[in-house]
Structures are given as C-alpha cells and as structure tokens.
Design a protein that fits this description.
- A hairpin with a 2-residue loop joins strand 6 and strand 7.
- By secondary structure, the protein is of the alpha+beta class.
- It has a 7-stranded antiparallel sheet with strand order 1-2-3-4-7-6-5.
- It folds into 2 domains: 4-129, DNA double-strand break repair and VJ recombination XRCC4, N-terminal (Dna Repair Protein Xrcc4, Chain: A, domain 1, Beta Complex); 132-173 and 187-233, no CATH class.
- It is built from 9 helices and 7 strands, in the order αββββααβββαααααα.
- It starts with a helix and ends in a 27-residue tail after the last helix.
- Helix 2 (54-64) crosses helix 3.
- The protein is elongated, with a radius of gyration of 33 Å.
C-alpha cells in the first residue's frame, strides 16, 4: 500500500500549474492514487497542502454526497478527472471551484455532477511545513536558475563563435545576398545592460505564476526527476550499509584468532610461491629488454 511518503514523492515530479479561483491566481499541483491524494497550493505568499488516505476520503464522501454510493477508488478517480483539466488550463465548464481563505488554512470547494447527481468535495488544506515548501518550490527554483544560467553561458559562447565564423567569411570576400539579414557582432555587456533596463521590467510585470507555469514546467519536471533519482540512490545506499559496527568490532583491540582452515591457508601461502605476476622475480634492470616504441599506425 502506497504511503504518504511515496505519494509525496510522486507529487514532486508534477509541475506547478497556474489556476484561477475568482479573481485570485494560485499555483497548484496534485497527485491522485487509489490509496489517496495529496494537493499543494500556493498564492506565493503562503503554501497549503492536504494529504488524505482512502479511509479519510471515504468518510468525507459519505458526509458530502449522501446519495452517491460508489467505491472509494472510483471516487478518487472522479476527483482526479475533475482536477486534471483544471491543472492543464482547461477547466470543465460544468465544474465550479471556489477557494475561500480561512484563519487556520485554505479550503477548495468543488461542485460538479456524476450521472445527473450533484457531486461535492472539499479540500481542507493546512499550512505546509517548511521542508515541503523547500522540497517542492525553493530547491527546484534554485536548481532551475542555475540550469538557466549555465544555458545562457553556453548560448553566449555559441554566439561569439558564430560572430567569429561570420567575420572569417567576410574577410574571405563573402557577401550577404540580402542586406536585411546583416547583424551586429554580439556584445555581452551591452546585451546584459539592455536586458536589465528593458526586458526585466516587462518580465516582472507578468501576472504571478503565469510565466513559471507556462514556460518552465518541463524544466521543473526534469530538475525534480533528478532530485528524486538522487534520493532513491541515497536510500538504497543507506539500506545496503546496514547497522553501524559495535565499538569492540570497530576498534579491534585484539585481532580475532584464525580458524584452523585459515591457519593452514596462511601457512601454505607463506611457504608456497604463487604464480601471480606481482610476486614473480623480476630481471635485473640491465638485462631487461627495452620495449619497442609503437607508432600511430603500427
């Protein structure tokens, strides 16, 4: 049975999506399984989450939908089918979402239909712990910024190489057939100044969450997949190391006595010459034949 930790690990690689409830914009991500779900939502001022197992979902579904008699797994599938279009930017017109703030957290009310019957659900979200916020938002954003910085350096280097190539063509007498294609040599410092003065204010003026959700979802997924892979490697390493040795074993104040078979083997090894190359007698340096140098094609 998949626990809450496994469910959150699956949530990690889900990209954030920009969603609107009324006039408010949020970032949200969710993961649904037959064993439960986990939802993470943020307005970039606070982060809330809810993790519910199948038992809690079954109990709440009976309270909110007294006329619906469905298995919990079917209920979870229905919730997933309602939330996925919302997270994909294509909400169902027949489903309404409202997200009133509360002093203790945040609630997301869902209203829809199932086979002509009304369908209700409430997500009761509480403030997310710092570790969860760091894992799903802060650390991935830092890694994404480093990846983008490296990408900019690579593109800058490529532009400079292209300029050198074009200049070589010009010095060789080549000319453009269409003058409108002519470009000025790339100057990195000037580009950075223009970007800070002109482009950056436009980027900062974009609605909160819009640019991140639309343009960087793939990069976020790749970054978090790498983190999940490293976490699995660390877990396997910890599992294979086993318990730490005791003090006596670790210090070895007196080496343990050899078994009878070990004594025989040790004695045999001490008196019987082996045939390993490391233990063969070497020729004197004067009699050693120099190796013939090999050419590139010999």
């Amino acid at each position: 049975m998949e626990g809450s930790e496994e469910l959150e690990s699956s949530l990690l690689t889900q990209p954030w999506a920009s969603v609107c409830f009324g006039e408010s914009t949020f970032l949200a991500k969710a993961c649904f399984r037959d064993t439960g779900y986990i939802l993470l939502i943020s307005d970039l001022s606070s982060v809330w989450y809810e993790s519910a197992d199948a038992e809690a979902v079954g109990q709440r579904s009976k309270e909110l939908n007294k006329r619906l008699m469905v298995h919990v797994s079917s209920f979870l599938h229905r919730l997933r089918d309602l939330m996925h279009p919302l997270l994909a930017g294509q909400p169902d017109a027949a489903t309404s979402f409202s997200c009133p703030h509360a002093a203790s957290g945040l609630s997301l009310h869902v209203k829809s239909e199932v086979s002509g019957l009304p369908f209700y659900w409430d997500f009761h979200c509480c403030p997310a712990p710092v570790e969860m916020v760091s894992r799903h938002l802060v650390r991935p954003l830092i890694r994404m910024s480093l990846a983008l910085q490296y990408q900019v350096r690579e593109l800058t280097s490529l532009l400079l190489q292209k300029d050198a190539e074009i200049e070589d063509y010009r010095e060789s007498g080549a000319a453009l057939s269409r003058d409108r294609l002519r470009t000025e040599p790339f100057q990195e410092q000037m580009f950075q100044r223009n970007f800070m003065a002109e482009s950056l204010p436009k980027i900062c003026g974009v609605g909160e969450g819009q640019a991140f959700a639309s343009a960087l979802q793939k990069l976020y997924t790749v970054v978090t997949q790498q983190e999940a892979k490293q976490a699995r490697k660390r877990q396997r390493s910890e599992d294979t190391e086993g318990p730490a040795p005791t003090t006596e074993t670790a210090e070895h104040p007196h080496p343990p006595p050899l078994l009878q078979e070990d004594e025989t083997a040790s004695s045999s090894e001490a008196t019987t010459p082996t045939s390993s190359p490391a233990q063969k007698p070497r020729l004197p340096a004067a009699k050693a034949k120099p190796k013939k140098a090999k050419g590139l094609f010999s």
